[in-house]
């Protein structure tokens, strides 16, 4: 269908950009902006021709936009909220956005533009061991426009927001059971841990959430035909979560549990596409971590665990942060969950349980991380 086709094209390009950035920064002479742009255009053009050829059999002229008005209204409301949080409250971005992702993207961009060789790490970075998929994505676009600006990050965030609503609209439009699909629309964002409620400046969190949504989107779209190719794609995308943020490991585990609990798959048939899918992203992640001056931003020791897990104030801080960051979105979603649980009972819990568990585990790790 048309919406599904558009979603796959955009997502594929978003994941291509950081890969091209990594390759071009290493192999194109610094400050060769013209060559960088020409190579970018050629590769992206050929890549998209390949995608069109790959997905052409699934492309139809079906009217997927019959519910467009409803989703457009919701999107516009969310965009106003997003604009207020990003451009009004924190125009320069918060800690994670500016010190972690934008700082690295700015360095990658300026190194190339100022005729300096690419460096994977910089000692002055805050937490140099953080994965750099997002900074490479931002830097790739920044070099192509000729300078660094945080508005590239804002543009990417709006792109993620558009993708999210396109996915919701496609699922709703193609579903015969309109009431049942509401479960997908509201349960999945709840399980994402940090979607709209933290979209203010946490660029990596936001893309992590959208990619996580996309993986479940692909699963539900191909549930009846979950062959080896579809499984390989799902595991490839799932392992890309590692390259966005360290916390992607928890989301990867939730996807693994979800597939094991909700889809009857022969173990040998399951393991081969999983191995093929994760080998490249996981290899890049391990190579980066092994060579990084900081493998883990929070040193974990027995004494640290004892002190953290017995500190009641930490539990209060985590609970407060959870409620504060989730806000109205969390309460609204819980109401939807309770309403649909009355109707779907065990079947509904079967889908929600592994996602809810990872949600709890993820927030639980803040008990042993740094207090900020």
Mean pLDDT: 75
Label the overall shape: globular
Computed Rg: 21 Å
Helix residue percentage: over 70%
* End-to-end Cα distance: 45 Å
Number of strands: 0
Helix-strand topology string: HHHHHHHHHHHHH
Percent strand equals under 5%
Largest sheet: none
Which keywords apply here?
372 residues, mainly alpha, 13 helices, 75% helix, globular
Task: Provide a descriptive summary of the structure in words.
Mean pLDDT is 75; it is low at 190-201. This protein has helices at 2-27, 33-55, 68-89, 95-113, 133-145, 151-174, 178-191, 203-221, 228-244, 248-262, 267-291, 302-309, 312-364. With 372 residues, the protein is mainly alpha-helical. It has one domain (2-292). 75% of the residues lie in helices and 0% in strands.
Concise account of the structure shown:
The chain has 372 residues and is an all-alpha fold. The chain is 75% helix and 0% strand.
Question: How are the elements arranged and paired?
Answer:
Elements: H1 2-27, H2 33-55, H3 68-89, H4 95-113, H5 133-145, H6 151-174, H7 178-191, H8 203-221, H9 228-244, H10 248-262, H11 267-291, H12 302-309, H13 312-364
Helix pairs in contact: 1-2, 1-5, 1-6, 3-6, 4-5, 6-7, 6-8, 7-13, 8-9, 9-10, 9-11, 10-13
